[in-house]
Amino acid sequence: MKISDLAARTGLTAHTIRYYERIGLMPAAQRDRSGHRAYDERTLVWVEFLGHLKTTGMPIRDMLDYARLRAAGAGTEGQRKAMLARHRDAVALRVVALTECLDVLDAKIAGYGD
Questions:
Q1: Which domains does the chain have, with CATH numbers?
Q2: What is the pTM of this model?
Q3: Residue spans of the chain under pLDDT 70
């Protein structure tokens, strides 16, 4: 798929995709015969995963560390698992805090009546 297709399917801009490639968050794209970037479904899955990490608040430097470990391949699974587990724990704490805030907002809204 072309960069415009990847952008449309992920909600990222082509500029952001090129930036992710430049900083090493994504591997360099294959090129078609015309020299245009050509992405496969694995890239789409990876970019969607990065989107989840971003949404959950993972700093880009940690995303880069994870991407480097992923690129290193076999032998880094334990490090990647530990990294994701730490991030998951932080996300779970934020979910609890946000749920408490949501409860307060709901109570405040209910206080205004119908």
A1: 3-111 (1.10.1660.10)
A2: 0.86
A3: none
